Amino acid sequence: MKANKIVAQLIGYFKTTFQQNPQLIFSPGRINLIGEHTDYNDGFAFPAAIDKGIYLAVEATEDDTSTIVALDAEEEYRFSTHDTLQPLAKRGWENYILGIVAELQKKGVDLPNFNLVFKGDVPIGAGLSSSAALENAVVFGLNHLFQLGISRKEMIFISQRAEHHFAGVKCGILDQYASMFGQKNRGLHLDCRTLTSTAYPMDLGDYEWVLIHTNVHHNLADSAYNHRRAVCEKVAQQFGVAALCDLSVKDLKTMETRLSADDYVKAAFIIEENERTLQAVKALMENDMGALGSLLFASHDGLSNKYEVSCAELDFLVDAAKASDAVIGARMIGGGFGGCTLNLMHTDKKQRFLEDIQPSYKAEFHQECTIYSVNIGEGTHLITNYE
Ligand code: GLA
């Protein structure tokens, strides 16, 4: 659905239900060109915000409860901002909003009640960070509405803590950063230790980014994610460094016999992936699309065989990409265990590949894969001009 149609729907719903004119916010999802699982190891990543995300309408209310509505799911939930909040056992969309409110309460903010309605055009569970988009939209909207004076940087930490405490995923800062700070047509080379980034124009010449969604999201994703993070922290501790990205592969080798084989391979993946991210920035700056593409394939190979966060559906799509002359690089993006592959495709050759991949994916997995073209957009912002 087109952006202005979604906005019109939100305004219509808000006016009819609450007899109010809301404030409107857009917060995007993200892709990550390379640098996967490096964020919680104080490494580098290379994300960009996309033009799909969460649209949110919010306004203060005099009522003694807040009403929050997920328009897509046609679900509503009520609570008071003065309650002590706990995550709901159903683990749904409500937890992201309750999590933000709980984090604001912890900061000592005396938050008034509000009405909030949201709708998205970013697929859920696709590895495109719909949850960070929602968290950022909520904290940004409340900050604007109640003039809380919270900086963008503080907001992304609030979003991250909401995810840790109310969604149970010990995520890094990649998604929240990219969604909040994204720049149109630019990728952000992000240093996750200093939380600073350099923006690079996405000038891809004859190539373009295309996402292919597996339409699967395997259940073990959250627990496996937390497990990977724990392994990384354990190895860093064994070396007496703050984070794994303080080590080189050579450093790691010196302790090979004192680590379990599995921990060694996982830690090596992180250090190699961090190195690949630096190489990818260089390749992009030198317009060397071939080198960039090879780094993407190498990243997927490590994610699948060393870090073990891929799945049969993602591997199938990347293997098909490798076999085609239309795609010069492809990898899974995000936490893994489902979601999308990101493909660097030759614009003039992509059509045949895209026509072939759909039936062959269906024949293999008995379900469709979905193709999205990627536009790189702005980070979280107010929508002021929607007429
Ligand atoms: C998820 C997390 C991020 C990051 C990626 C993997 O998207 O939320 O913090 O760790 O996985 O790069």
Radius of gyration (CA) equals 21 Å
- Major sheet, described briefly? 6 strands, mixed
| CATH topology heading of the largest domain | Ribosomal Protein S5, domain 2
How many domains make up the 3D coordinates? Answer: 2
Shape: globular
Q: H/E order of the elements?
A: HEEEEEHEHHHEEEHHHHHEEHEE
- Which architecture of the largest domain would the CATH scheme give at its second level? 2-Layer Sandwich
Mean pLDDT level: 96
- Relative strand content: 15-25%
Helix coverage percent of residues? 40-55%
Uncertain parts: none
Query: What ligands are attached or bound here?
Result: alpha-D-galactopyranose
Condensed summary:
The protein is an alpha+beta fold. The protein contains eleven helices and 13 strands. The chain is 42% helix and 22% strand.
Task: Tell me what the structure shows.
By secondary structure, the chain is α+β, with helices and mostly antiparallel strands. The protein folds into 2 domains: 2-199 and 377-382, Ribosomal Protein S5, domain 2 (2-Layer Sandwich), CATH 3.30.230.10; 202-373, GHMP kinase, C-terminal domain (Alpha-Beta Plaits, 2-Layer Sandwich), CATH 3.30.70.890. It is 42% helix and 22% strand. The chain has helices spanning 3-18, 94-106, 130-145, 152-167, 174-181, 221-239, 249-254, 261-285, 289-305, 312-322, 350-365; strands at residues 23-32, 44-45, 47-60, 66-70, 75-79, 114-120, 186-191, 196-201, 207-217, 327-332, 338-346, 370-373, 381-382. The strands form 3 sheets. It has a 6-stranded mixed β-sheet with strand order 5-4-6-3-1-13, with helices on both faces. A hairpin with a 4-residue loop joins strand 4 and strand 5 (75-79). Helix 2 (94-106) crosses helix 4 (152-167), helix 3 (130-145) packs across helix 5 and helix 6 (221-239) packs across helix 8. The longest helix is centred in the C-terminal third of the chain and has 25 residues, at 261-285. The chain is globular, with a radius of gyration of 21 Å.
